[in-house]
Predict the 3D structure of the following.
Amino acid sequence: MIRGTAVWRVALFGLLAAMMALALLASGCSSEPAEPGSAAGGDAAPSDPETADDGDPANAYEEDTMHVSTVEVTGTERAVMVTSKGTVTLEFYPEDAPNHVASFIELADAGFYNGIKFHRVIPGFVAQGGDPITRDLTPEQVVAGAPGVGTGGPGWQQKAEFNSRKHETGTLAMARSQHPDSAGSQFYICLAPQPSLDGQYTVFGKVVEGMEVVTALTVGDTIESVTITR
């Protein structure tokens, strides 16, 4: 009887250990995106650069509701982004993502990005900004993940323009929620090559000067201004 009880206890212990291992594996490999605000402190495993889904109605992504910018892009434009850590110069890929480029220029020309903070920075992964909710928050509030951080946008979405451009160090691309046609104003810059993101997000430019500034960014750093040169 003692031997049988011991065997039963060993079997039970083994079953519990197996269940715990499966639970840890599932939590480490979840396909659900982490909230961008919660990722600010650094995830154990970086998740995709998605914006939080703020409950948009199903018809929000219908073709006739997509934003189409009226900005005329010549192909010579660059963006000079002045941050609290220094200046970054970006060039665009209008031949690969014409509407994303035009929409970014439209927002920049309107001063939309001025004062917005980077709300998500994961070393070796991406630096993400463009959420207008962070404009009226202190850096400390952004670091703390204030309510709503990561959900803001310009009030419209645009149709995806996935292309063959690779996610390399310095790549500029648009974040989105789980729906492919949900990009708005939030963008990210790759801090290292991210081939797992290729073809899933719209790449529309890259850093041509100031990558050392991008690498130095931390959560709460401010975009002081974005000026489009032509």
